[in-house]
Amino acid sequence: QLQLVESGGGLVQPGGSLRLSCAASGFTLGYYAIGWFRQAPGKEREGVSCISSSGGSTNYSDSVKGRFTISRDNAENTVYLQMNSLKPEDTAVYYCAARQDPGLLRHEEYPYWGQGTQVTVSS
User: Fold this and answer.
1) How far apart are CA 27 and CA 69, in angstroms?
2) How many angstroms separate the CA atoms of 122 and 74, rounded?
3) Would you state the pLDDT for residue 111?
């Protein structure tokens, strides 16, 4: 059974950093593009970043470009989202999701999802 598990969320002050991890079990993550999405209370799910199965292609939403970096270690079956210069508006539940290449920022295109990890940016 294909499973994705996010970790690394927490409470951080504005300007701080967090690194989220998306680990796969039951399948080889390297065969899939991975997207990171977030959803704040009362808002729609938003695409944050995505990466191709090889890691050779990445994409970011305008709201995080220059602050977030997506990467993957297929040997470790894990994808990362390094989040720097965090802002209160980054507060949300963050999800990773998997699909066949290419990576996309549209959540409707992803069939496999993790359970999410909470990120709270507050002083």
Assistant:
1) 24
2) 33
3) 95
Instruction: Please check whether residue 119 is in contact with residue 91, taking contact to mean a CB–CB distance below 8 angstroms.
Output: yes
Q: Which residues pair with 81 in a beta bridge?
A: 20, 70
The distance of Cα 11 from the centroid of its chain, to the nearest Å, equals 17
Report which residue type is found at 121. V
pLDDT at residue 117 in the model: 98
38-94 pLDDT tens trace:
999 999 999 999 999 999 999 999 999 999 999 999 999 999 999 999 999 999 999
Residue 112's identity, in one-letter code, is Y
Give 81: exposed, middle or buried? Use CB within 10 Å, 0-12, 13-18, 19+.
buried
Torsion-angle region of 30 (φ positive above 0: left; ψ -120 to 50: alpha; else: beta) = alpha
Estimate to the nearest angstrom the gap between the alpha carbon of 39 and the chain centroid.
11
Which DSSP symbol is given to 26?
S
Q: In angstroms, how far is the first alpha carbon of the chain from the final one?
A: 40
What span, in angstroms and rounded, lies between the C-alpha atoms of 101 and 76?
A: 19
